[in-house]
Amino acid sequence: MIALADPTRRAIFEALPQTPRSVGELAAAIGVSSSAVSQHLRVLREARLVMMRPDGNRRLYSLDPRGLADARDYLEQFWPSALAAYSAALSQAEAEQS
């Protein structure tokens, strides 16, 4: 997820689960310019992590469930090996304490 590697983009992404927000609301919440937020939102939209819907003369941004599902599917392939590694580490720690 290269799109979330940037800390400002990550902050924007993390500000969206509660409610859709406009560029101005995101800029105020994150503490960067509206122009910078717009650029970051473009990257997040291209990665299908956020989507936009018009609301009068504003554009509201929210998380895009399609892209989140793609990300979840990608990460789930690593889950069995992560659990196995965790189990092995626990077993090793228990053996070392005995």
TrEMBL record:
List the NCBIfam families: HTH_metalloreg (NF033788)
Q: List the Gene3D superfamilies hit by this protein, alphabetically.
A: Winged helix-like DNA-binding domain superfamily/Winged helix DNA-binding domain
Alphabetized PROSITE patterns for the sequence = HTH_ARSR_2
User: What GO MF terms are annotated?
Assistant: DNA binding; DNA-binding transcription factor activity
Which PANTHER family does this chain map to?
Answer: TRANSCRIPTIONAL REGULATOR, ARSR FAMILY (PTHR33154), TRANSCRIPTIONAL REPRESSOR SDPR (PTHR33154:SF33)
Q: What species is this protein from?
A: Nocardia pseudobrasiliensis
Q: Name one Pfam family in it.
A: HTH_20
Q: Which UniProt keywords apply?
A: DNA-binding, Transcription, Transcription regulation
Protein name, UniProt field: ArsR family transcriptional regulator
Query: Which ranges carry the HTH arsR-type domain?
Result: 1-86
